[in-house]
Design brief:
heterodimer, A: 169 residues, alpha/beta, five-stranded parallel sheet, elongated, B: 268 residues, Beta Polymerase, domain 2, two-stranded parallel sheet
């Protein structure tokens, strides 16, 4: 027998919460953002720290997955070289819709200090980016803030299939 | 950021010269000052032609003919106890003399000595692989090919090691631009989306501090906010900044820009 007392007088007298499909679906999506493990450089260390116990990404529902098929969000953490560019695009294509991208750190945003022949000058040349996260390297708190901003963005989106998939071109 | 200026003839024409600057030279000593090196050089001279030899920073430098490199290194390892090839690569002297300088840095743990074997080759001349003698030359020779375009004969896997296989150009040559040539700047776009995507994606933005005042897709001006992507080449309206809520704050008077007074007389 239930030990707690159910107060049927709250919520307009009904044990029911009313919401819309959009809100319900986005509530689920935004609170289980499984991230693709994509540490490319020193930002990857900060991303690992965000996932570890002190900063604890699990409480946001963000669990790192090693497979693009199981991931909703790609956190590009670090310098993207031109040799690696085709692989990041292939992994992005293998992720299932809906999917989001956080570009983490100066190198991923603009190429950063690597103004050279071998570095992609911003991952937005390859994949569509939702959140640009500045810093070199960003602290784990900053990455958490970026994920919370992305959650906010997801909650503002339509949940149905009529939304167009993001395309770079 | 400094603008990029082509430095094709950087070795011929220095862009900054100080009249009183004298290039520092590391002192060179005769080989006879060290009996171990003198004995080694005597053995090398007995079998191969030595173009030049001296001691610099307690290491002997020996210049040989490029076709002798395999024989000399085999002699160094088998007879002279130089059992390790710690480093090898090329130096670009193309602008200066049209040649590459190849160096092999050898270490003898028994003698506690280091020797550098050097030779000059022409730009399109290939050199014999020493991978059969020293296994460490395997990747070093691939890197030399990758970075300088020096071809190595009889190497087991003569492919690029750092750059992608379909890369064009040799990045460590002095004539290679730091920020990449035409091929390098479009490499990832061409490979992933195809050449027709160049117009859509656009060229690389190399100046990270660049701000385009009329680009309303990527920049916003405080006090002149407009809609995303709006054309403001004809000018844009001012958006009045208010620093308080619409209804005002309790006990604090609402401050508007129209009612405020700008004091120009500082002695008032």
């Amino acid at each position: 027998m239930a030990q707690h007392q159910v107060n049927y007088t709250q919520n307009g007298g009904l044990p029911v919460a009313l919401t819309s499909i959009d809100k319900l679906v986005n509530w689920g999506r935004s609170n289980s953002l499984w991230a693709l493990t994509y540490g490319l450089a020193c930002c990857g260390i900060e991303m690992m720290a965000s996932g570890a116990s002190r900063y604890d990404f699990d409480r946001f529902g963000t669990i790192f997955r090693a497979s693009p098929r199981q991931a909703d969000i790609m956190i590009v953490a670090g310098t993207l070289t031109k040799k690696h560019a085709e692989f990041i695009r292939r992994l992005y294509d293998q992720m299932t819709e809906p999917k989001w991208v956080i570009s983490m750190g100066s190198c991923a945003n603009t190429g950063g200090m690597f103004n050279t022949y071998a570095t992609v000058q911003g991952v937005d040349r390859i994949v569509p980016v939702d959140i640009y996260l500045p810093g070199c390297a960003p602290r784990p708190e900053t990455l958490q803030y970026a994920v919370m901003m992305l959650q906010k963005k997801i909650r503002a989106e339509k949940a149905d299939k009529s939304q167009k998939p993001k395309r770079l071109m | 950021m400094r603008p990029y200026t082509p430095k094709d003839n950087v070795q011929k024409k220095s862009y900054y010269t100080d009249r009183y600057w004298v290039a520092p030279q590391v002192a060179k000593f005769d080989v006879s000052t060290d009996e171990v090196f003198a004995a080694d050089l005597k053995v090398i001279k007995g079998k191969f032609k030595v173009l030049d030899a001296y001691i610099q920073v307690e290491q002997m430098v020996v210049y040989i003919r490029p076709e002798d490199n395999f024989g000399v290194l085999k002699l160094m390892r088998d007879s002279l106890e130089y059992t390790q090839l710690s480093e090898m690569s090329a130096i670009d002297w193309l602008a200066d003399k049209g040649q590459f300088e190849i160096f092999y840095q050898l270490l003898s743990m028994n003698k506690r000595k280091r020797i550098r074997i050097k030779c000059f080759i022409e730009e399109n001349q290939a050199i014999e692989s020493v991978e059969k003698i020293f296994r460490s030359a395997d990747w070093a020779e691939r890197e030399m090919y990758d970075m300088f375009g020096v071809k190595v004969n009889n190497h087991p896997f003569m492919k690029r090691i750092l750059m992608p296989y379909d890369w064009e150009g040799y990045p460590l040559r002095k004539t290679y631009p730091m920020q990449g040539d035409e091929f390098a700047s479009w490499y990832e776009v061409d490979k992933i989306f195809g050449k027709e995507a160049r117009d859509v994606i656009g060229p690389e933005i190399r100046d990270a501090a660049a701000v385009d005042r009329y680009d309303t897709k990527r920049f916003a001006r405080l006090g002149h906010e407009v809609a995303y992507g709006e054309d403001i080449s004809e000018g844009e309206p001012d958006t009045v900044q208010t620093y308080q809520e619409e209804g005002g704050v309790f006990l604090v008077g609402k401050l508007t820009k129209e009612e405020s007074v700008v004091i120009t007389d500082r002695d008032r």
